[in-house]
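Entry 14. Structure prediction run on the chain below.
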Amino acid sequence: MRQIPVDTSTAVAMVAQPPTPKIANRQTGEVATDRETGATMMVVDVMFVMDGNAEILSLAVPETGVPRDLTMGTPVALTGVIARPWERDGRHGIAFRAVAVTPITAAKAA
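Output returned:
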């Protein structure tokens, strides 16, 4: 499967929705886990602004890379973001994944 690295160095990102567990199977309610580590996968919606364009991205992130205190509006740094094109049953899209979502404090921003 193709993995496309995403350069987030010139982007501004902030939490649009607090993290929630990623559901692997909607019928059974099974929660997704990271295939390599077994960590629970979380979904973090972020407002991603680059070159004057803003979009809401849903990022899949291992629970170990998501602080518990992320709240809506928190500016964040995104680590290890990749995009994966997907296609299933005639539908297609791009899935985004990150290694970590880290709050940016006022001290870090200065």
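The CA atoms of residues 78 and 101 lie 5 Å apart.
Filed with the rest of this week's runs.
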